[in-house]
Amino acid sequence: MKSVVFGQYYPADSFIHRMDPRAKVILSVLFIVCTFLCRNAVSFFLMTAAALCLVLLSRIPVHLVLRSIRPLILILIFTSLINVFMTKGEMLLTPSWNIPLPWGKTWSIRIYAEGLWNAAFMILRIFILLIGTSIFLSFTTTPIAMTDALEQLFSPLKKIKIPVHDIAMMTTIALRFIPTLLEETEKIMNAQKARGADFISGGLIKRAKALLPVLIPLLISAFNRAYELATAMECRCYNGGEGRTRLKVLQLRFSDVLAILFLIAFVVGIFFLNRLGLIYTMK
Amino acid sequence: MDKILLRDVCFIYGKGTPFEKCALDHVNLSIKSGRITGIIGHTGSGKSTMMMLLNGLAKPTSGSVLIDGYDIQSRPQDVMQEWLLKEPYAGMRRSAAKRAIKQEIERRRRQLCFRVGLVMQYPEYQLFEETVYKDIAYGPSNMGLSKEEIRDRVLSAMRQSGLSEKLCEVSPFDLSGGQKRRVAIAGVIAMRPEVLVLDEPAAGLDPQGREQIFGEIRDYQRETGSTVILVSHSMEDMAQYCDDLAVMAHSKMILQGTREEVFAQTDLLETVDLDIPQITKLIQKLRQRGLNLPANIYTVDGAVAALRQLYAQTETGGREE
Ligand SMILES: Nc1ncnc2c1ncn2[C@@H]1O[C@H](COP(=O)(O)OP(=O)(O)O)[C@@H](O)[C@H]1O
Ligand SMILES: [Mg+2]
């Protein structure tokens, strides 16, 4: 298991884990549409509740989900500041503060209630978007299942001569070998360290040179692996996607369809909720 | 005298992730100086992990590793605060002191690697130089030795690991599997470590190659008097070449002692699906039936010799009656 799985995938047994990956791709697209449709406080409240439900349903520890958002905190702060200071509205909250700038002009800070609302909505929107898509796509779906799903969803493009199968196969193979290569890199590094290799001291050039004893064996084994894989595929008469059957046939179950229908209903609901001018509606 | 001592060592892979895996579970082990110690256990029992602790490539999650009675250096984050208060780091700027401490720890780790030479499992993949000579010289040159000293060490390492001097200028990638394995072993032997650790040195070789490699390792040990640790899952090999044995199962150390002591515990070994060598079993059965045979027979050759001797004794004994 360890070697086939990487990235954010979190193994657990939940309804979302068991879903057909194609359904999950569709669901996350719908979810994205949903978050962009949201315009007023009630719909945002509903969306937030929906995102929380997703986290609970997927049985992924909340701290892991929050940790995946941490790198985006800077962006969140930045967008909210822009929203707070740049939105013009009707309800002025501050007296007009005028700050003289060194080059003669003055800058007047005006914060409107609408600005605060917008900032809050933007933060929520990014938050919900990230939680939703990462629950559907990265936390509960292995990258390989993901490529499988995308291959089938895009298979109509074969009609216009886009080699969907080949792209998917290449992606799958690349994904499959990333953990193997990482493992191998670690092994080779350890072997050279055991012979006294020093990867940390000295200047840039010295350190780059010190990596040669790792890179050369790594490249050699990567090429050998590629040749072996090619031979093995040829021995099994692989010649592209034509007439190929699958070991694991993806099956869209009733519950998957139900989930999609439910989310579509949700989208429609949000759309109409926006019509009601509750409290504040974003433009 | 204990050369290496593991005290209550635990090792956990991927601590704090969903893939957490305890590879060593409160392991105690003592390795005697100047002997060949065999570590036996099925695949996945934690042997390779334990070997990486011996030369500091991995740090135990808890517990300590002692070499010649000294605890080998712990993790940087553990000693950092303590060292920052000590000379010569106390007088430095904080960032410079931290860097200096990291470098000092790395220096000690490398020093440790030169003292405890580790040949990893399937070591062929570590070869990278253009010629066999240069590849074997990689370790010694990292030690900062002179050209002559390196040459001397490389050539003797090649001899000890059964490589002919003609191979010096050959590319290591043109060699056979067994020869590549030998070059990798020579690359570690050339550092003249006090302890030589070999992780499954014969894995994937044919029976003849296995015998040769093990024979060379034994000769190397007899010649240099160094401490050797052999890792394997094959009882037959271990029985033949090791003085002491340690048995691992499911991340735990379940039995250790001299070869004779360990093989006396047939029942305990069977509970973890390990078997004493067939021939030793046969001799044990014969002894149970009252035949006067020695208990420490681990090879077919040894058994033949013992049976011949017994036969000769009974012959002469019979005639005297
Ligand atoms: N790099 C690693 N990451 C996670 N788990 C590992 C890693 N290396 C080994 N393990 C696990 O640790 C356990 C012990 O492995 P190892 O020490 O290689 O056993 P042995 O050498 O006896 O076959 C195994 O269950 C293995 O899956
Ligand atoms: Mg191993």
What attributes does this structure have?
heterodimer, A: 283 residues, mainly alpha, 2 domains, two-stranded antiparallel ribbon, 2 strands, disordered N terminus, B: 321 residues, alpha/beta, Rossmann fold, 6-stranded mixed sheet, 4-stranded antiparallel sheet, 12 helices, 20% strand, binds adenosine-5'-diphosphate, binds magnesium ion
Counting DSSP E segments of at least 2 residues, the number of strands of chain B comes to: 10
CATH architecture descriptor name of the largest domain in chain B: 3-Layer(aba) Sandwich
Strands ordered across the widest β-sheet of chain A: 1-2
Q: What's the CATH H-level superfamily name of the largest domain in chain B?
A: P-loop containing nucleotide triphosphate hydrolases
Instruction: State the helix count of chain A.
Output: 11
User: Strand percentage of chain B, roughly?
Assistant: 15-25%
Low-confidence blocks of residues of chain B = none
- Major sheet characteristics of chain B: 6 strands, mixed
Provide the β-strand percentage band of chain A: under 5%
Unreliable stretches of chain A: 1-5
Number of helices of chain B: 12
- Structurally, the number of domains of chain A stands at 2
Helix content of chain B: 40-55%
Strand order of the largest sheet of chain B: 6-7-8-3-9-10
Radius of gyration of chain B: 23 Å
What summary fits the major beta sheet of chain A? 2 strands, antiparallel
SSE inventory with pairings:
The complex is a heterodimer of chains A (283) and B (321).
Chain A: H1 15-18, H2 21-37, H3 41-58, H4 62-69, H5 73-86, E1 97-100, E2 106-109, H6 113-139, H7 143-153, H8 164-194, H9 204-210, H10 212-235, H11 254-275
Antiparallel strand pairs in A: 1-2
Chain B: E1 2-13, E2 21-32, E3 36-40, H1 47-54, E4 62-67, E5 70-71, H2 76-84, H3 94-115, E6 116-119, H4 132-142, H5 147-160, H6 177-189, E7 195-199, H7 207-224, E8 227-232, H8 235-241, E9 244-249, E10 252-258, H9 259-264, H10 266-271, H11 278-288, H12 300-320
Parallel strand pairs in B: 3-8, 3-9, 6-7, 7-8
Antiparallel strand pairs in B: 1-2, 1-4, 4-5, 9-10
Helix pairs in contact in B: 2-3, 4-5, 4-6, 5-6
